[in-house]
Design goal:
Blueprint lengths: L7 E8 L4 E8 L1 H7 L3 E4 L1 E4 L6 H13 L1 E3 L11 E2 L7 E9 L4 E3 L8 H4 L2 E6 L11 H13 L5
Parallel strand pairs: 1-7
Antiparallel strand pairs: 1-2, 1-4, 2-3, 2-9, 5-8, 6-7
Length: 155
């Protein structure tokens, strides 16, 4: 069977001046059903809507989930898109977002209106805790590896 779903944008905002990154502490009913845990550590992200580009979806998700509004001329750089699995047509569209204070401003994250979104929140994590993050899914683990590459963690 081929499963057709919309692509998903995912990102880790990296706040350069404060040396922090942003993750989600998220209530995910499907994960709870599987492992019984109420909350999970994930990346900022969500589905690309019909007629929306990946960049536009990312900009929308950043504001909804993290309260980050990028300046209009901020240049997004998408990493290599990855298929979700062999049986799916959709892809993860990953981004690492290095942000200086002049690149964005913060607003109250309003979410998408869902109950799960209202129960979730974005958190700023100091970079020194990068190895302590207990990611709840494969794409979050992957994005943490990409952030480590970006900041030169392995050098």
């Amino acid at each position: 069977h081929i499963i057709k779903e919309r692509d998903t944008v995912v990102c880790i905002p990296y706040l350069i001046e404060t040396n922090q990154f942003i993750l989600r502490y998220e209530y995910i009913p499907t994960f709870k059903y599987s492992d019984g845990q109420e909350y999970h550590v994930t990346v900022v992200g969500g589905g690309v809507e019909v007629g929306e580009t990946a960049d536009k979806a990312l900009i929308r998700e950043l504001e909804e989930e993290a309260g980050i509004v990028l300046r209009e001329d901020y240049e997004l750089e998408e990493l290599k898109p990855l298929f979700v699995s062999k049986g799916h047509t959709n892809k993860y569209r990953p981004y690492i977002l290095p942000l200086n204070e002049r690149d964005y401003h913060e607003v109250i994250a309003k979410g998408d209106g869902s109950k799960a979104e209202k129960m979730s929140k974005s958190v700023k994590v100091d970079i020194k805790y990068l190895d302590s993050v207990n990611a709840s899914d494969l794409i979050t683990d992957y994005m943490i590896l990409k952030l480590k590459e970006y900041i030169g963690y392995y050098q």
